[in-house]
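EI: anyone free to look at a 291-residue chain?
SC: sure, send it
EI:
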Amino acid sequence: MTTPLRRYRDIVLVVLLLAVPFFFLRASIRRPEEMNPVDRMVLRVAAPIQFFAAAAARGISGIIGDYVYLVDVKADNNKLAYENARLKNKVREIGQLQIENQRLSRLLGLREAIPDEVASAAVIGKNTTEYFRVAALTLDTVGVAIRANMPVVSVDGAVGTVMRVDGDRVDVQLTVDSGFGVDVIVERTGARGFVRGVGDPGRYAVRVEYVQRTDEVAVGDLLVTSGIGCRFPKGIAVARVVRVAKRDFGIYQEVEAEPTVDFSRLDAVLIVLSDPKDCAPVAKRRPRSSG
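SC: here you go
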């Protein structure tokens, strides 16, 4: 139960709380020459309070302003970082599209340069065994008859020949396989030779056989198909010479080369739809006479 004293105390406290701001306001708005002693006393008491209150308000306002500014800056930084990452990704995508466009343009140019009809295919895998270096393809062109021994080429040069066909899957014997061979000429000098795969499972390499000791061959020379033999179109790059060893005796010189095709990055090829009946098996090919 509330006692009369507590009730009066509460009333007096409320009146004082309402009156004090009134006196402060009244004293503040009056002109100095019109202030009475009570107003002056109120101003003396209020001045320090107002100073500290204003200082505290400025400090709190500054902290809040700095916080809001930092929050805005962080949000802007996050937005800029996201935009920067998005633009970098866009630049990479554009670069990849340009590379893909260049590759497709070169492939289209190769298709137009080959006189025979061709079928396109995508590389889906490569297999290295003790006996074969093989690439597996899936045909992009439907309704074409692919048969064994058909030449397979890419924008960088000769890839190999068709080994077997199973539906739309084609296995290709690569130029680096020991069972592969093709007649070539040195583009610079016209010297003749025969490129055969080394068959090394640890690297992509070929050797050049039947290059006469008197023929001019140098490191860096490009070897291209002669058009003779397994019906590779004439002038398709096969390999580039990396080592030449001329002997003081014998008919031929020793030449090593590396294929112009990077098989580790091969992804698209063309199959030349030539008649395999006109292509003699590599094993039955005989070198030209030395005379």
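EI: The chain has two domains: 1-113, 118-281.
SC: 👍
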